[in-house]
Design goal:
2 domains; mainly alpha; transport; Growth Hormone, Chain: A; protein transport; two-stranded parallel sheet; membrane; 4 strands; 71% helix; 14 helices; MFS_trans_sf
Length: 431
């Protein structure tokens, strides 16, 4: 039965509750990416933290942002309920963003944001399914619409928070991120009337369909997780050491105006929005004629494309003779984003499809653990930025992505067999 009252007219052809969740998610992403766009610059320029230490802090923070939802989801399901978890999580995150305005509270502020995110992130999208009847054809597009909010928020955040931080002071940029989180919270509180009634919570172990998580499936998922962890060691540098290169190694002058360094962080979500429909249409055409590629091969292709983006930076750095033109950075993000769309959404879908009965949440949670481990590895790799020539560093990132591609290509037969054994299960998108 649909969670939307029949008397309530839809907005934009979808239940009004989806608009509420979309806008709440958009502003939460605005706050998250707005603060993240400033973080490395703030630590190295304002707090004078050594680059290697700053990169390690950055990697640890982004890792924790994907680890806490594993615990937060359990707390939401067993104790608080989804609505309370969202309200508490959003409030805690807003407080953390405002705490960033005090230099002595840096570590406490980052921990506060990560803890609030743990309650918020898994709870919000889990309300989408309840907006629709099981046979509602709009249900399949709901997550695509919701995911768009991630990219709109991620696109706007570096432009607004980044500009405010660079021009008026880092603390102003962090405050803008906090206001964005408050905006999302207020939208959610106002729109609760359009959300479905929450089901009663279960205490202790929830009843699940009996299933067995077979050893072959575990091994396949572990192999994919290891490959993606290696890949993320290179992938996560876009907001870390590549951001530092944009500051010191790129000529950002456009006429009489210098492009703010944080603006380049908006390119990735903008390109995701532009490329996704075209890429999906191309994949659909290939599938219609029986030429669709397997998930592992598609992921390996994405890793190789990202490797190509870093190899391009290696060549540019070697022959730039000083500072590279800003168009090279734009081209990097175009290639990098194109590769990302091959590997990361495909990996999430693969984890969900291989989830045996009764282990769906556990299997998808393992994807968050993969992101967690990959972010930690990226922080460690980032410490090498100031210890080796930048050409060699970019070559190292390309090598990591190539290793991930080789691993994914080698395990392709295992993945194919696992997909033939396991049925498909629906899943939700993650950040």
């Amino acid at each position: 039965m649909s969670g939307r009252p029949a008397s309530v007219s839809p907005w934009f052809g979808q239940p009004r509750g989806l608009t509420v969740l979309f806008l709440t998610n958009m502003w939460e992403q605005f706050s998250y990416f707005g603060m993240r766009a400033l973080l490395v610059y703030y630590m190295t320029k304002q707090l004078l933290i050594a680059q290697g230490t700053a990169s390690l802090i950055y990697g640890t923070y982004t890792a924790c942002a994907y680890f806490t939802p594993i615990v937060g989801g359990v707390i939401a399901d067993r104790l608080l309920g989804k609505r309370r978890a969202i309200i508490v999580g959003a409030s805690v995150m807003a407080a953390g963003h405002f705490m960033m305005g005090f230099e002595s509270l840096l570590y406490l502020a980052l921990a506060t944001i990560a803890l609030g995110n743990g309650l918020f992130l898994p709870s919000l999208p889990s309300q989408i399914n309840d907006l629709y009847a099981e046979d509602d054809p709009r249900r399949g597009w709901a997550y695509n619409i919701y995911y768009l909010g991630i990219n709109i928020g991620g696109f706007l955040a570096p432009l607004l928070c980044g500009t405010l931080g660079e021009v008026f002071g880092w603390h102003i940029g962090f405050a803008a991120a906090g206001l964005g989180m408050l905006a999302g919270l207020l939208i959610y509180l106002w729109g609760q009337r359009y959300l479905p009634a929450e089901q009663g919570r279960t205490r202790g172990a929830p009843p699940v369909e009996r299933g067995r998580l077979g050893l072959p499936t575990i091994l396949v998922l572990a192999a994919v997780a290891m490959s993606v962890t290696v890949f993320r060691g290179a992938y996560e540098q876009a907001g870390n050491t590549v951001a530092l290169w944009a500051d010191t190694g790129v000529d950002r002058v456009l006429g009489a105006w210098a492009v703010p360094m944080t603006w380049f962080q908006s390119l990735n979500p903008l390109l995701v929005m532009a490329m996704t429909p075209v890429l999906l249409a191309g994949w659909k055409r290939r599938a219609d004629v029986g030429r669709d590629t397997s998930p592992a091969v598609r992921m390996a292709t994405g890793a190789l494309i990202v490797a190509g983006a870093y190899l391009m930076l290696c060549v540019v750095e070697a022959f730039s003779g000083g500072k590279a033109h800003w168009l090279w950075l734009v081209l990097f993000f175009a290639i990098y984003t194109f590769g990302e769309l091959f590997i990361l959404p495909t990996g999430l879908g693969l984890f969900a499809r291989l989830a045996p009965p009764g282990f769906g949440a556990t299997t998808v949670a393992a994807w968050y653990l993969t992101i967690f481990a990959g972010s930690l590895s990226a922080g460690l790799v980032g410490t090498l930025w100031s210890r080796m020539p930048h050409t060699a560093y970019f070559a190292l990132l390309a090598t990591l992505a190539i290793i991930a591609a080789i691993l994914l290509r080698l395990i392709d037969p295992w993945v194919r067999r696992a997909e033939m054994r396991e049925p498909s299960y629906p899943h939700r998108k993650a950040r």
